[in-house]
Amino acid sequence: MKAVVADITIPRYLVTRGLGRLWRHAYLSAISPIRLSDVPDPPLPGSEWVKVRVTRGGICGSDLHLVLLETSPSASVYASMPFVIGHENVGVVVEAGAGSGVDVGRRVVVEPLLPCATRGFAEPCPACARGAYNLCSRFAEGALAPGLGHGACRDVGGSWGEFMLAHRSRLIPVPDHLSDDQAVLVEPLAVAVHPILRYVPEGSVTVLVVGAGAIGLAAVAALRALRPASRTLVLARHAHQADLARRLGAAEVIPPIGGAHYREIARLTDARVLRPLLGPPVLTGGADVTLECVGTSRSIDDALRLTRAGGSVVLAGLAAVPRGVDWTPIWLREIAVRGTFAYAQERVDGRTVRSMDLAMELVASGRVDLLPLITHRFPLPEYRQAVEVALDKRRHRALKVLLQPD
Protein backbone atom coordinates (compact mmCIF):
# COMPACT_ATOMS: atom_id res chain seq x y z
CA MET A 1 0.00 0.00 0.00
CA LYS A 2 0.99 3.66 -0.37
CA ALA A 3 1.76 5.53 2.84
CA VAL A 4 3.67 8.56 4.11
CA VAL A 5 6.28 7.13 6.44
CA ALA A 6 8.54 8.63 9.10
CA ASP A 7 11.89 6.86 9.46
CA ILE A 8 13.90 9.25 11.58
CA THR A 9 17.56 8.38 12.08
CA ILE A 10 20.17 10.58 13.73
CA PRO A 11 22.07 11.29 10.47
CA ARG A 12 18.90 12.22 8.54
CA TYR A 13 17.65 14.26 11.48
CA LEU A 14 20.86 16.28 11.75
CA VAL A 15 21.24 16.86 8.01
CA THR A 16 17.59 17.83 7.50
CA ARG A 17 17.53 20.12 10.53
CA GLY A 18 20.73 21.80 9.42
CA LEU A 19 19.53 22.45 5.89
CA GLY A 20 16.05 23.31 7.11
CA ARG A 21 17.36 26.39 8.91
CA LEU A 22 18.34 27.81 5.52
CA TRP A 23 15.84 26.10 3.20
CA ARG A 24 12.51 25.05 4.69
CA HIS A 25 11.72 22.81 1.73
CA ALA A 26 14.45 20.49 3.04
CA TYR A 27 11.84 19.04 5.40
CA LEU A 28 9.88 17.80 2.38
CA SER A 29 12.80 17.00 0.10
CA ALA A 30 14.48 13.69 -0.77
CA ILE A 31 16.85 14.00 2.20
CA SER A 32 13.98 14.21 4.69
CA PRO A 33 13.14 11.21 6.89
CA ILE A 34 9.50 11.76 5.84
CA ARG A 35 8.60 10.20 2.47
CA LEU A 36 5.87 8.50 0.45
CA SER A 37 6.60 4.77 0.27
CA ASP A 38 5.21 1.44 -0.81
CA VAL A 39 4.85 -0.57 2.40
CA PRO A 40 3.39 -4.03 3.04
CA ASP A 41 -0.28 -4.18 4.00
CA PRO A 42 -0.25 -4.65 7.79
CA PRO A 43 -1.58 -8.06 8.94
CA LEU A 44 -4.15 -8.26 11.74
CA PRO A 45 -2.31 -8.69 15.09
CA GLY A 46 -5.12 -10.85 16.48
CA SER A 47 -8.76 -11.86 16.27
CA GLU A 48 -9.96 -8.68 18.02
CA TRP A 49 -8.51 -6.45 15.32
CA VAL A 50 -9.87 -5.04 12.07
CA LYS A 51 -8.37 -3.50 8.95
CA VAL A 52 -9.72 -0.10 7.94
CA ARG A 53 -9.49 1.43 4.47
CA VAL A 54 -8.83 5.10 5.17
CA THR A 55 -11.08 7.53 3.32
CA ARG A 56 -9.94 10.74 5.06
CA GLY A 57 -6.80 11.57 7.03
CA GLY A 58 -6.37 14.94 8.68
CA ILE A 59 -3.19 16.97 8.97
CA CYS A 60 -2.82 17.94 12.62
CA GLY A 61 -0.50 20.47 14.19
CA SER A 62 1.41 17.59 15.79
CA ASP A 63 1.95 16.11 12.32
CA LEU A 64 3.42 19.43 11.14
CA HIS A 65 5.74 19.50 14.16
CA LEU A 66 6.85 15.98 13.20
CA VAL A 67 7.51 16.93 9.57
CA LEU A 68 9.53 19.95 10.71
CA LEU A 69 11.40 17.74 13.22
CA GLU A 70 10.28 19.97 16.10
CA THR A 71 8.98 17.19 18.34
CA SER A 72 10.91 16.77 21.57
CA PRO A 73 13.39 13.86 21.43
CA SER A 74 11.92 12.66 24.73
CA ALA A 75 8.80 11.58 22.81
CA SER A 76 10.87 9.12 20.76
CA VAL A 77 10.62 6.50 23.51
CA TYR A 78 6.91 6.27 22.64
CA ALA A 79 7.43 5.70 18.92
CA SER A 80 8.74 2.89 16.74
CA MET A 81 10.30 3.52 13.34
CA PRO A 82 9.37 3.37 10.57
CA PHE A 83 5.77 4.37 11.19
CA VAL A 84 2.97 5.69 9.01
CA ILE A 85 2.06 9.26 9.97
CA GLY A 86 -1.47 10.41 10.79
CA HIS A 87 -4.04 9.89 13.54
CA GLU A 88 -7.09 11.96 12.48
CA ASN A 89 -9.11 9.47 10.48
CA VAL A 90 -12.29 7.93 9.16
CA GLY A 91 -12.63 4.82 7.06
CA VAL A 92 -14.39 1.58 6.22
CA VAL A 93 -13.74 -1.84 7.78
CA VAL A 94 -12.52 -4.16 5.00
CA GLU A 95 -11.33 -7.09 7.13
CA ALA A 96 -12.50 -8.17 10.58
CA GLY A 97 -11.06 -10.69 13.00
CA ALA A 98 -13.41 -13.35 14.33
CA GLY A 99 -13.37 -11.81 17.82
CA SER A 100 -13.84 -8.21 16.76
CA GLY A 101 -17.65 -8.23 16.64
CA VAL A 102 -17.51 -5.80 13.73
CA ASP A 103 -19.10 -6.17 10.30
CA VAL A 104 -17.09 -5.62 7.15
CA GLY A 105 -18.33 -2.47 5.42
CA ARG A 106 -18.91 -0.56 8.67
CA ARG A 107 -17.73 3.06 8.65
CA VAL A 108 -15.69 3.90 11.72
CA VAL A 109 -13.46 6.47 13.32
CA VAL A 110 -10.49 4.89 15.07
CA GLU A 111 -9.57 6.32 18.45
CA PRO A 112 -5.81 6.54 17.90
CA LEU A 113 -4.37 5.77 21.35
CA LEU A 114 -2.84 2.33 21.98
CA PRO A 115 -3.22 1.65 25.73
CA CYS A 116 -3.32 -1.63 27.69
CA ALA A 117 -6.45 -3.03 26.01
CA THR A 118 -4.74 -2.95 22.59
CA ARG A 119 -1.44 -4.41 23.82
CA GLY A 120 -2.64 -7.78 25.08
CA PHE A 121 -2.67 -7.08 28.81
CA ALA A 122 -5.42 -8.93 30.67
CA GLU A 123 -5.13 -6.57 33.64
CA PRO A 124 -5.08 -2.82 32.96
CA CYS A 125 -2.49 -0.53 34.48
CA PRO A 126 -3.77 1.81 37.23
CA ALA A 127 -4.33 4.69 34.78
CA CYS A 128 -6.32 2.57 32.32
CA ALA A 129 -8.32 1.03 35.20
CA ARG A 130 -9.58 4.46 36.23
CA GLY A 131 -10.38 5.50 32.66
CA ALA A 132 -7.31 7.69 32.16
CA TYR A 133 -6.00 5.52 29.32
CA ASN A 134 -4.30 8.56 27.79
CA LEU A 135 -1.87 8.21 30.71
CA CYS A 136 -1.31 4.47 30.20
CA SER A 137 2.01 3.27 31.64
CA ARG A 138 2.47 0.62 28.93
CA PHE A 139 2.67 2.59 25.69
CA ALA A 140 6.13 1.06 25.18
CA GLU A 141 5.26 -2.51 26.24
CA GLY A 142 3.18 -5.51 25.30
CA ALA A 143 2.27 -7.18 22.03
CA LEU A 144 2.72 -4.02 19.94
CA ALA A 145 5.85 -2.02 19.19
CA PRO A 146 6.23 1.18 21.24
CA GLY A 147 3.89 3.96 20.26
CA LEU A 148 1.39 6.32 21.86
CA GLY A 149 -1.00 5.54 19.05
CA HIS A 150 -1.62 5.46 15.33
CA GLY A 151 0.81 7.78 13.65
CA ALA A 152 3.65 6.70 15.98
CA CYS A 153 3.62 2.87 16.03
CA ARG A 154 5.08 0.77 13.18
CA ASP A 155 2.68 -2.14 13.73
CA VAL A 156 -0.71 -0.49 13.13
CA GLY A 157 -0.35 2.10 10.37
CA GLY A 158 -1.74 5.60 10.30
CA SER A 159 -4.22 7.77 8.44
CA TRP A 160 -1.61 9.02 5.96
CA GLY A 161 -1.75 5.57 4.44
CA GLU A 162 -4.31 3.54 2.50
CA PHE A 163 -5.00 1.10 5.36
CA MET A 164 -4.65 1.06 9.12
CA LEU A 165 -5.39 -1.52 11.80
CA ALA A 166 -7.59 -1.00 14.84
CA HIS A 167 -8.46 -2.91 17.99
CA ARG A 168 -12.18 -3.37 18.58
CA SER A 169 -11.99 -1.27 21.76
CA ARG A 170 -10.85 1.74 19.72
CA LEU A 171 -13.67 1.75 17.15
CA ILE A 172 -16.34 4.45 17.09
CA PRO A 173 -19.16 3.74 14.60
CA VAL A 174 -20.09 6.59 12.28
CA PRO A 175 -23.85 7.24 12.04
CA ASP A 176 -25.19 6.84 8.53
CA HIS A 177 -26.29 10.46 8.25
CA LEU A 178 -22.79 11.83 8.84
CA SER A 179 -20.39 12.39 5.96
CA ASP A 180 -16.75 11.33 6.04
CA ASP A 181 -15.80 15.00 6.25
CA GLN A 182 -17.86 15.41 9.43
CA ALA A 183 -16.50 12.19 10.93
CA VAL A 184 -12.83 13.01 10.41
CA LEU A 185 -13.30 16.11 12.60
CA VAL A 186 -14.43 14.06 15.61
CA GLU A 187 -10.85 13.41 16.77
CA PRO A 188 -9.76 17.08 16.91
CA LEU A 189 -13.04 17.93 18.62
CA ALA A 190 -12.33 15.26 21.27
CA VAL A 191 -8.91 16.85 21.88
CA ALA A 192 -10.77 20.04 22.84
CA VAL A 193 -13.55 18.30 24.77
CA HIS A 194 -11.13 16.59 27.18
CA PRO A 195 -9.50 19.68 28.75
CA ILE A 196 -12.73 21.66 28.73
CA LEU A 197 -14.53 19.05 30.81
CA ARG A 198 -11.54 18.68 33.13
CA TYR A 199 -10.41 22.26 33.63
CA VAL A 200 -13.15 24.72 32.69
CA PRO A 201 -15.70 25.04 35.50
CA GLU A 202 -19.39 25.47 34.80
CA GLY A 203 -20.81 28.93 35.23
CA SER A 204 -20.00 32.41 34.01
CA VAL A 205 -16.22 32.15 33.69
CA THR A 206 -14.10 33.93 31.10
CA VAL A 207 -12.09 31.56 28.93
CA LEU A 208 -9.30 32.83 26.70
CA VAL A 209 -8.41 30.62 23.72
CA VAL A 210 -4.91 31.43 22.46
CA GLY A 211 -4.74 30.42 18.81
CA ALA A 212 -7.44 29.82 16.21
CA GLY A 213 -6.12 26.82 14.35
CA ALA A 214 -8.18 23.64 14.19
CA ILE A 215 -7.84 22.81 17.91
CA GLY A 216 -8.48 26.38 19.04
CA LEU A 217 -11.59 26.63 16.87
CA ALA A 218 -12.78 23.20 18.02
CA ALA A 219 -12.36 24.48 21.59
CA VAL A 220 -14.55 27.50 20.82
CA ALA A 221 -17.29 25.23 19.48
CA ALA A 222 -16.96 22.79 22.38
CA LEU A 223 -17.16 25.62 24.93
CA ARG A 224 -20.43 26.81 23.42
CA ALA A 225 -21.85 23.26 23.58
CA LEU A 226 -20.51 22.13 26.96
CA ARG A 227 -19.99 25.38 28.91
CA PRO A 228 -22.71 27.66 27.48
CA ALA A 229 -22.56 30.11 30.40
CA SER A 230 -18.89 30.87 29.80
CA ARG A 231 -17.60 33.84 27.82
CA THR A 232 -15.01 32.92 25.19
CA LEU A 233 -12.28 35.31 24.07
CA VAL A 234 -9.99 34.28 21.23
CA LEU A 235 -6.57 35.42 20.05
CA ALA A 236 -6.61 34.82 16.27
CA ARG A 237 -3.70 35.79 14.04
CA HIS A 238 -5.46 35.63 10.65
CA ALA A 239 -8.71 37.19 9.45
CA HIS A 240 -10.19 33.91 8.17
CA GLN A 241 -9.56 32.32 11.58
CA ALA A 242 -11.21 35.26 13.33
CA ASP A 243 -14.31 35.07 11.12
CA LEU A 244 -14.84 31.39 11.89
CA ALA A 245 -14.16 31.85 15.61
CA ARG A 246 -17.04 34.32 15.74
CA ARG A 247 -19.32 31.93 13.82
CA LEU A 248 -18.49 29.13 16.25
CA GLY A 249 -19.38 31.17 19.32
CA ALA A 250 -16.53 33.45 20.39
CA ALA A 251 -17.74 36.55 22.21
CA GLU A 252 -14.68 38.58 21.19
CA VAL A 253 -11.80 37.92 18.80
CA ILE A 254 -8.55 39.85 19.17
CA PRO A 255 -5.52 39.85 16.83
CA PRO A 256 -2.26 39.30 18.77
CA ILE A 257 -0.47 42.21 17.13
CA GLY A 258 2.12 44.26 18.99
CA GLY A 259 0.89 44.87 22.51
CA ALA A 260 -2.66 45.83 21.55
CA HIS A 261 -4.08 42.45 22.58
CA TYR A 262 -2.92 43.06 26.17
CA ARG A 263 -4.88 46.29 26.31
CA GLU A 264 -7.95 44.67 24.76
CA ILE A 265 -7.92 41.64 27.10
CA ALA A 266 -7.51 44.04 30.02
CA ARG A 267 -10.52 46.04 28.84
CA LEU A 268 -12.66 42.93 28.42
CA THR A 269 -11.75 41.50 31.83
CA ASP A 270 -11.60 44.74 33.86
CA ALA A 271 -7.87 44.28 34.36
CA ARG A 272 -5.06 46.84 34.46
CA VAL A 273 -2.04 46.94 32.18
CA LEU A 274 1.27 47.54 33.94
CA ARG A 275 4.53 48.26 32.13
CA PRO A 276 7.73 46.58 33.37
CA LEU A 277 11.20 48.00 32.75
CA LEU A 278 11.69 45.53 29.90
CA GLY A 279 9.54 43.05 28.06
CA PRO A 280 5.80 42.63 27.42
CA PRO A 281 3.12 44.16 29.66
CA VAL A 282 1.84 42.61 32.88
CA LEU A 283 -1.87 42.38 33.72
CA THR A 284 -3.52 42.63 37.10
CA GLY A 285 -6.55 40.50 36.28
CA GLY A 286 -7.27 38.59 33.09
CA ALA A 287 -8.99 35.40 32.01
CA ASP A 288 -10.14 32.79 34.51
CA VAL A 289 -8.93 29.92 32.32
CA THR A 290 -6.65 30.13 29.29
CA LEU A 291 -6.49 27.35 26.72
CA GLU A 292 -3.11 27.67 25.00
CA CYS A 293 -3.59 26.01 21.58
CA VAL A 294 -0.44 27.00 19.68
CA GLY A 295 2.57 25.68 21.57
CA THR A 296 5.12 28.41 20.71
CA SER A 297 7.23 30.34 23.19
CA ARG A 298 5.32 33.55 22.48
CA SER A 299 1.88 31.98 22.85
CA ILE A 300 2.81 30.36 26.17
CA ASP A 301 4.26 33.62 27.46
CA ASP A 302 1.09 35.46 26.43
CA ALA A 303 -1.09 32.82 28.08
CA LEU A 304 0.69 33.18 31.42
CA ARG A 305 0.55 37.00 31.35
CA LEU A 306 -3.13 37.19 30.29
CA THR A 307 -4.49 34.88 33.01
CA ARG A 308 -5.70 36.29 36.30
CA ALA A 309 -4.09 35.54 39.64
CA GLY A 310 -5.24 32.12 40.81
CA GLY A 311 -6.40 31.17 37.31
CA SER A 312 -5.37 28.25 35.11
CA VAL A 313 -3.40 27.87 31.91
CA VAL A 314 -4.02 24.64 30.02
CA LEU A 315 -1.33 23.64 27.53
CA ALA A 316 -3.18 22.13 24.57
CA GLY A 317 -0.70 23.29 21.91
CA LEU A 318 1.85 20.47 22.30
CA ALA A 319 4.67 22.69 23.46
CA ALA A 320 8.00 20.89 23.15
CA VAL A 321 11.06 22.92 24.20
CA PRO A 322 9.92 26.56 24.51
CA ARG A 323 12.56 29.22 25.00
CA GLY A 324 12.29 32.69 26.47
CA VAL A 325 9.11 32.05 28.48
CA ASP A 326 8.89 34.12 31.67
CA TRP A 327 7.63 31.77 34.39
CA THR A 328 7.24 34.57 36.97
CA PRO A 329 3.41 34.67 36.75
CA ILE A 330 3.24 31.04 37.90
CA TRP A 331 4.68 31.74 41.32
CA LEU A 332 3.91 35.45 41.66
CA ARG A 333 0.21 35.03 40.84
CA GLU A 334 -0.21 31.35 41.74
CA ILE A 335 -1.32 30.36 38.25
CA ALA A 336 -1.95 26.64 37.79
CA VAL A 337 -0.35 25.26 34.63
CA ARG A 338 -2.01 22.08 33.47
CA GLY A 339 -1.16 19.66 30.72
CA THR A 340 -3.67 17.90 28.50
CA PHE A 341 -3.14 14.96 26.19
CA ALA A 342 -5.61 13.41 23.79
CA TYR A 343 -8.78 12.02 25.37
CA ALA A 344 -10.01 9.73 28.14
CA GLN A 345 -13.17 8.82 30.04
CA GLU A 346 -15.13 11.83 31.26
CA ARG A 347 -18.04 12.46 33.62
CA VAL A 348 -20.84 14.37 31.91
CA ASP A 349 -24.41 14.81 33.16
CA GLY A 350 -24.05 11.96 35.63
CA ARG A 351 -22.65 9.43 33.17
CA THR A 352 -19.21 8.20 32.17
CA VAL A 353 -18.37 8.59 28.50
CA ARG A 354 -15.22 8.63 26.41
CA SER A 355 -14.19 12.02 25.00
CA MET A 356 -14.29 10.56 21.47
CA ASP A 357 -17.79 9.14 21.93
CA LEU A 358 -19.02 12.46 23.31
CA ALA A 359 -17.43 14.31 20.40
CA MET A 360 -19.21 11.98 17.97
CA GLU A 361 -22.50 12.66 19.80
CA LEU A 362 -21.98 16.42 19.53
CA VAL A 363 -21.32 16.19 15.80
CA ALA A 364 -24.10 13.68 15.09
CA SER A 365 -26.69 15.75 16.99
CA GLY A 366 -25.73 18.95 15.17
CA ARG A 367 -24.74 20.72 18.39
CA VAL A 368 -21.26 21.20 16.93
CA ASP A 369 -20.64 21.81 13.23
CA LEU A 370 -16.97 21.91 12.33
CA LEU A 371 -17.36 21.39 8.58
CA PRO A 372 -16.30 25.00 7.85
CA LEU A 373 -12.86 24.08 9.19
CA ILE A 374 -12.12 21.98 6.09
CA THR A 375 -10.46 24.23 3.55
CA HIS A 376 -8.29 21.94 1.42
CA ARG A 377 -8.03 18.30 0.38
CA PHE A 378 -5.32 16.42 -1.52
CA PRO A 379 -4.77 12.89 -2.81
CA LEU A 380 -2.12 11.01 -0.84
CA PRO A 381 0.68 11.34 -3.45
CA GLU A 382 0.39 15.13 -3.11
CA TYR A 383 1.15 15.11 0.61
CA ARG A 384 4.03 17.56 0.14
CA GLN A 385 1.70 20.18 -1.35
CA ALA A 386 -0.80 19.45 1.42
CA VAL A 387 1.80 20.08 4.11
CA GLU A 388 3.00 23.28 2.42
CA VAL A 389 -0.58 24.60 2.37
CA ALA A 390 -1.13 23.64 6.02
CA LEU A 391 2.07 25.45 7.01
CA ASP A 392 1.27 28.70 5.17
CA LYS A 393 -2.07 29.61 6.72
CA ARG A 394 -1.95 33.27 5.77
CA ARG A 395 -1.33 32.74 2.06
CA HIS A 396 -3.71 29.79 1.60
CA ARG A 397 -6.29 30.67 4.29
CA ALA A 398 -5.90 27.08 5.47
CA LEU A 399 -7.57 25.61 8.52
CA LYS A 400 -8.03 21.84 8.25
CA VAL A 401 -6.22 20.17 5.35
CA LEU A 402 -7.23 16.61 4.48
CA LEU A 403 -5.49 13.76 2.69
CA GLN A 404 -7.71 11.32 0.79
CA PRO A 405 -5.82 8.01 0.49
CA ASP A 406 -8.68 6.38 -1.46
What does this structure look like?
With 406 residues, the protein is of the alpha/beta class. It folds into 2 domains: 218 residues, Alpha-Beta Complex (Quinone Oxidoreductase, Chain A, domain 1), CATH 3.90.180; 148 residues, Rossmann fold (3-Layer(aba) Sandwich), CATH 3.40.50.720. The chain contains 13 helices and 20 strands. Strands 3, 5, 6, 7, 8, 19 and 20 form a 7-stranded mixed β-sheet that branches. Strand 9, helix 6 and strand 10 form a beta-alpha-beta unit. Helix 5 packs across helix 6 and helix 5 crosses helix 11. The chain is globular and about 65 Å long. The model has no long low-confidence stretch (mean pLDDT 96).
Outline of the structure:
This protein is of the alpha/beta class and 406 residues long. The chain is built from 13 helices and 20 strands.
Indicate the topology.
Blueprint lengths: L1 E5 L3 H11 L13 E5 L10 E10 L2 H7 L15 E2 L4 E8 L10 E4 L15 H4 L33 E5 L3 E3 L6 H5 L1 H14 L6 E5 L3 H13 L4 E5 L3 H10 L3 E3 L5 H9 L3 E3 L7 E3 L2 E6 L4 H9 L1 E9 L12 H5 L3 E4 L5 E4 L2 E4 H11 L8 E6 L3 H9 L1 H4 L3 E5 L2
Parallel strand pairs: 9-10, 9-14, 10-11, 14-15, 15-16, 19-20
Antiparallel strand pairs: 1-2, 1-4, 3-5, 3-7, 3-20, 5-6, 6-8, 12-13, 17-18
Helix pairs in contact: 5-6, 5-11, 6-7
